[in-house]
Write a structure and sequence with these properties.
The protein contains 9 helices and no strands. 81% of the residues lie in helices and 0% in strands. Helix 3 runs parallel beside helix 6. About 3% of the residues have low confidence. The chain has one domain. By secondary structure, it is mainly alpha-helical.
């Protein structure tokens, strides 16, 4: 594969990792509605940074990291479940208002979303294993076949594809945000909170029942 093809393949991987509806998507949507485009986009970028880091691990074949994730999947999964539970409960208990968005966003709420999204992704063993599976499914792109500029091209593609998705998502939500009131914001916030709690409870319950998800 040429560098351009590797860059494009990486962008596809970035999109595949980012697009499916999950905790980070819900976080980005709710923060865009509450705080505006920048807050939602930055929340998505937190997930992008995590995906790019995972892509670099896969591309450069950092096997000790991969072995660590696989060997510690249960505690990592538990930590991820607790994180989702805490964030979900906090979302359901909050009472946000659109008219306070600018003031809250300027006080540090923007970066908080990005940090939360990063840890959501990094405490999900499935994200690391999914990234490895995507690399392995594309033939020439595997942990042993990439070096130097070739690996960098794939990793840059993952970052670009993921960033594109978060920009598009935040833009779409920003477009409809002006037409919505506090009632819609409360509904979205509560729905996102419920889904996060379900995700988190599912992760923890699977550990208690001895079900291996990853």
């Amino acid at each position: 594969m040429t560098l351009a093809q590797l860059l494009f393949a990486g962008a596809v991987i970035g999109l595949v990792m980012a697009v499916p509806v999950g905790p980070v998507n819900l976080l980005a949507i709710s923060r865009t509605l509450r705080y505006g485009f920048v807050a939602g986009f930055v929340a998505g970028l937190g997930g992008m940074v995590a995906d790019t880091l995972l892509a670099a691990i896969a591309a450069y074949g950092v096997t000790w990291v991969i072995d660590f994730v696989e060997g510690n999947a249960r505690p990592i999964q538990f930590a991820g479940g607790v994180l989702l539970l805490v964030m979900g409960i906090a979302a359901m208990r909050s009472h946000p208002h659109l008219d306070r968005a600018a003031a809250v966003a300027s006080s540090g709420g923007v970066l908080r979303g990005g940090v939360s999204a990063f840890f959501m992704t990094m405490t999900n063993p499935g994200a690391a294993l999914a990234m490895l599976a995507l690399f392995g499914s594309l033939g020439d792109i595997d942990a042993d076949g990439l070096q130097g500029a070739r690996a960098a091209a794939v990793v840059a593609g993952v970052a670009a594809g993921s960033t594109l998705w978060w920009f598009v998502l935040a833009s779409i939500v920003r477009h409809v945000r002006g037409r919505l009131g506090d009632a819609w914001l409360h509904a979205v916030n509560r729905t996102a909170g419920i889904v996060l709690v379900v995700f988190g409870a599912g992760l923890i319950a699977s550990l208690a029942l001895g079900i291996r998800l990853f």
